[in-house]
Write a structure and sequence with these properties.
Number of domains: 2
Strand content: under 5%
Helix content: over 70%
Number of helices: 7
Order of helices and strands: HHHHHHH
């Protein structure tokens, strides 16, 4: 039991430290953002990021949560669960990017009130990256690879 508690405390501390470090990096970069971005630019980037996060939740289709549930389920093959969930997220993300990319102009008009198709294209590409990075971080947690999660 003490081995389990030690492992739980160690991995929990690593995940907490990673979260704190990412927030500290964001705060450290704030002067850089404010120097090179106008408040309107920073606001536009934040609106796009919020939209990417919201759409990513829909695109993930609950696959990450299903992975967490079925990975340890009796009778399920963990490797099959991992590969199937990755394929699902990869294709869902890729199809979403392909479908959304031609609408970058209208998406930026809708979200920002002005045409910024380049920013929308960056956000759409980021949607694919965010979707797969959430999956990767989940795999690290499942394998208890806190050091990989941290870096």
């Amino acid at each position: 039991m003490s081995g389990y508690l030690r492992r739980l405390a160690t991995t929990g501390a690593a995940y907490t430290a990673a979260s704190i470090l990412s927030k500290l990096i964001a705060v450290a970069l704030l002067p850089l953002y404010t120097r090179y971005l106008t408040p309107a630019d920073y606001g536009a980037a934040e609106v796009m990021f919020s939209a990417v996060v919201a759409v990513s939740i829909v695109i993930r289709l609950g696959v990450v949560e299903a992975l967490l549930r079925f990975y340890y389920k009796q009778g399920e093959e963990p490797a099959a669960v991992v590969s199937t969930s990755f394929a699902t997220l990869f294709w869902a993300g890729l199809v979403s990017v392909i479908v959304l990319m031609p609408f970058a102009g209208p998406i930026s008009d809708l979200l920002l009130g002005e045409s910024e198709p380049t920013l929308a294209r960056i956000a759409i590409g980021g949607l694919f990256v965010l979707t797969l990075s959430e999956y990767l971080l989940t795999i690290f947690r499942l394998d208890e690879r806190a050091r990989a999660f941290f870096t």
